[in-house]
Structures are given as C-alpha cells and as structure tokens.
Amino acid sequence: MTYCVAVKLNAGLVFLSDSRTNAGLDQISTFRKMIVYEKPGDRFMVLLSAGNLSISQSVREILQIEQIKDPDSDEPITIWNAKSMFDAARVLGAAVRHVYERDGESLKRAGVDFNVSMIFGGQVKGEGMRLFQVYSAGNFIEATAETAFFQIGESKYGKPVLDRVITPTTPLDEAAKCALVSMDSTLKSNLSVGLPLDLVVYEANRLQSDRISCIDEHNPYFQMLRSTWGQKLREVFDEIEDPTWDGSHTEVPLVCQTERHAPIKKIRNAKEKLI
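and the corresponding structure tokens:
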C-alpha cells in the first residue's frame, strides 16, 4: 500500500509520498510514488500515484508521450505543451484510459482489479496553480479553497491533523511540517506505509523548484519531528482533565442531563425489551 498527500495553498504547493509497496507480508519493496516534470520558466508539475504498481508505472511511462487532440490546432496536446493544468490533467486521464484499454481485460481475466489513483498538480505559465485527483476511469476532480488537500492510499490515519491545520492561508513551510506529521501518524499506525519519503515544496509562480528532499530514517529533521510530536501529544493528553463518575466537583461533568437523550437502557432479564 502507500500514502501520498498534496496540499494547495495561496503560497504554493506541497507534495509528499512514501515508497513502500507490498504484495503480502513477506514481499515488501521500495518504489517511488512521485515524479516531477519541470521546464523552468514554463511549467512545473508533480504526479503522485497509488494502487496497482504495474498500472501506475505504465501510466507514468505513457504520460511522457500521450497526446490528445486539440480542436483549435493541428498540434496534439501533451503535458509538455498544454496551455493549462486542466489540459495536462486531461492528457493524464487519457493515459489512464490508454492503459485500461490495453491491459484491463487481461487483468480482469486474472482476477485483478484495475486499481489506480493519482494526484496531479502544478502550474503552467500564464495561469495559477492547480491540483487534481485522478481516478481509475481517467476522470478527475480539482482542489478548491474548501478542499485544500488531496490524499490517496492509506489516508485515514493522517487526515485529522490536516483537517485541523490546513487552510489556503497556511504558510508553505508550516504546511510541509503538517504533511510530515500526517505521514508520521500513518507510519505509526500502518505497516504497509514506509520510508524513505519524497517531499517537494513549490513556491507559487516560480515555475521550478529546488525544495526537494528524500527523507529516510536517519533524517535529523524527521527524527526531531517524530519524537517531538509524540512527546507533545502525550503532554497535552496528560493536561486534559479525566472524566469523573462519583459526583465529585468538576466544571466539565461527563455525566449530565440532556433534553433529548437519556443514557442507554440496560437489559436485566429475558422479558425486558429494548424498545
């Protein structure tokens, strides 16, 4: 399995992925789930992938040369000449469908689902940054101010901190820190996600990035973040008052009367009914 997250902010974009792939408990490998496309001064794009590894690798390979027809020109659209990120996402969708048309029936006969999900984001000169989540059918949705991040793979463990912290106005480095905390929460709870990590931070309108890092178990910043996050969580947890059950004085009682709901009813013998 894998975990990838991408965040769209006013200040830029953050992309983070793990690199673990497993086909059973004893078949664990390392494959990078991120690829960066950059033509400095013209376009900067990042692709994250999850799902069936053979499918995602095929899509990534075909994407380099995939073309779609431009109704306004004789020149086909590719990710390298697309005039917008939307058109580039359309090319990616076509690449996904291309792989499905080639391999889908064979996979089905082998009992394998056509399972791939992707996050694709960046900026093309002349427009703002955009971020898309692409599904197995090649269709996609776009991030908005209300939904500033996308996750694919094992997303549930790392989502709460993103929900609490990320807004469009979050500073870029703070969002990178939040994404790493999200990844740490996932690493802590799911063995199918693993190091090393790939992190890319893109500043709006630069159309290139040198903020790229590979993070392994020896990375000093990630070691500090993991230990500090765990320690501070424990400290905050210990500061929260325990619930009281014996009527002791407290300003925040757990057991109290409510207007609409009563405590759950006990069943004391076979003749009593729940309703």
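(Above: one complete record from the training split.) The chain has five helices and twelve strands.
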